[in-house]
Amino acid sequence: MSEPDVSIPSSFVEIFMRERRNIEKALETTNRNIYGIGGAAELLGLKPTTLLSRIKKIE
């Protein structure tokens, strides 16, 4: 896995796009599994309900 991009975003759009990419990558990595051990929520350090809320926000 490559090193995470730790540069500071300069706008709200960049923050939104980074969050979207992170969620998409986590879902891809976990075969779209949100819940449980090894799920996207755990990978992102979120509760599954929080991740679901953020997914709805970015759609």
Summarize the structure.
By secondary structure, the chain is mainly α. Helix content is 58%, strand content 0%.
Descriptive account of the structure:
The chain has 59 residues and is mostly helical. The protein has one domain (12-58). It has three helices and no strands. The longest helix has 18 residues, at 12-29. The model has no long low-confidence stretch (mean pLDDT 89).
Topology (SSEs and partners):
Elements: H1 12-29, H2 40-44, H3 48-58
Entry keywords:
59 residues, mainly alpha
Total helical segments: 3
Quickly count the domains.
1
Briefly note the structural class of the backbone.
mainly alpha
Q: Total strand count, please?
A: 0
**Low-confidence sequence ranges:** none
Mean pLDDT equals 89
C-alpha geometry: globular
Q: List the helices and strands in order.
A: HHH
